[in-house]
Amino acid sequence: MNDRPAGPADSPAALAAALRSTGYLADDGLATATFLAMRMNRPLFCEGEPGTGKTALAQALAQVLGAKLIRLQCHDGIDASQALYDWDFPRQLLHLRALEATAGSGALDTEAVEASLYDPRFLLARPILEALQTTPSVLLIDEIDRADDEFEAFLLEVLTEHAVTIPEIGEIRATVPPLVVLTSNRTREVHDALKRRCLYLWLDHPDLAREIEILHSRLPGIPERLAAQVAGAVRALRQADLLKPPGVAETIDWARALQLVGANHLDVDSAAATLGAVLKYREDADRVRKQLDTLLAS
Amino acid sequence: MTSTETPVGDPIEGLVGFTVVLRSAGLAVTTDRVAAFLSALDALDVTSRTQTYWAGRLTLCSDPDDLPRYDRAFEDWFTPPRGGGRTRIVDERKPPPPKLAALTPSTQGESDDEGTESTQVFTRASGNEVLRNRDLAELTPSEREHLRRLLALLRPELPTRRSRRLRPSRHGATDPGRTLRAALRDHGEMRHLRRRDQSRRPRRVVLLVDVSGSMEPYADALLRFAHVVVRRSPGTVEAFTLGTRLTRITRELRMRDADRALAAAGRAIPDWSGGTRLGEVMRAFVDRWGQRGAARRAVVVVFSDGWERGETELLGVQMSRLHRLAHKLVWVNPHAGKDGYAPVQGGIVAALPYLDDLLAGHSLATLEELLEVVRNA
Predict the structure, then answer these.
(1) Bridge partner list, B207
(2) What is the pLDDT of residue B290?
(3) Which residue among A24, A33, A165, B69 sits deepest, i.e. has the most Cβ atoms within 10 Å of its Cβ?
């Protein structure tokens, strides 16, 4: 888009550098994906294991673009009135009573009353409408896999037209379409019609070097040795066949927890004390606790 | 692909050729995806290998399973041939194995039937009743054909749960919107309070069908049954096969035509009538699908004879996890309908403590019973 602020959107590399300055480390694929999402005006569909930085990406993008981040958390049974807009009924009622009070004895003109009730000032903008009305904005549609099929179908229109139609008012179209990031944890397959309109980005766990780098960027001042140990241990945990392998978010949590308990390196005692930051199932914790020393030796 | 030239002349031609290769590798490459690929390259540097790679990966893939296939096709297409001639681009995949066709009655059966068509029509009413109670493993080809038609006639009703979504109703909390609109028609006089209440939503159903060797006589009928249930509510039913590995067949079973759907499912199942390692496969299911959401608050139905070669301890652990995730956990064992059956196979014994129901499912009548149980779950 021409009317987007120039700078980070000039090339994938420039965008990666801009993201890096916010503390989000993007690899080639991620930088290209976000760059294309802006250039082609397409939503970015991010899928991957929990904790690989899907939501954080939207936050970093908003920061880079100086845009407002508007977040729509999807859930079971979410519908248009929670995502798009709603009418402020109490205020409409109040308005109606006020009209009656001031109308005196004369009968009210129904049509005029109705028109005054559906005034934009009684419109409550929910995330999607808000994103269309805010320039610039980043719209994060989080965990789309939790919503149901009808909601996906409804999103199709909004995402391709960048406009919504409110029967009483008419069409509201975004002057500059928001940058849309959808995330999914793959609890359910999202319809192909929706995916086809998006760029598809699969996020994997980062490699060791990158994860150490992420730790340094998120926790400035973390000792070199601790960062390397934590990243290495998390890597081993991911291969240990756990119920819930730790994501990047857990790596950061763990490192932070270790720093808080005053450990400047990772050993069996400090690891055992802070294991709750990285493992979220009792079965996993039991198994790992038994073989902590072999895990840390690797 | 007949083209054996190196894609150098017109870049567009080469790129489109690449998408054709991808399509034959099994990716769902549609025209609009190709268009997106080309416009992505337009915004990027087409001479950069990395950028070309990502332009394609971002626009032409839509599933993590697509990625390895994409990588391989990209490597083949864009790596200049070393030494001699260019690698040929031909669809080298073997034609789909006709395993499923072998299980279903042969087509000669149909010509057999033709002579007796009139008598069959005549006896159908009583025949249905007999067939309903016959063991699915002991049917003759023509009975199988008949059973298929009966299965296609099933209209399963699926379970529901309360939703958070509010619908107009006679009971429940007041609905300000509808009340206001009604008042408007009466010049602002509120004569009736309109109300709204939580609606019912379909509850997810997960079908896990064991297709290992010992279940082979039942697999065809059970997959057809799964097809009927998936078709009934494609958005809320998930189907998987269990064998030496876990295969998701929901997408294939969503096809309208039963035979095409089953053929597609047959191609998707790599371990048809092989062995089972129920414990490991169940763990794969709970890890990859169950825990993430497919089994959460769902009605989970396992079709298996519980024949477990490996350790049953693992199966027990997985069933207990599944039991904690699911709303109802039902096990269907075709042998449970036979006289003198006792749940003594290792797998069943391990799973038994976590089951809400153990059903037979060896005949149409028992499958109907199963539907009843599922509906009321």
Answers:
(1) B239, B301
(2) 85
(3) A33
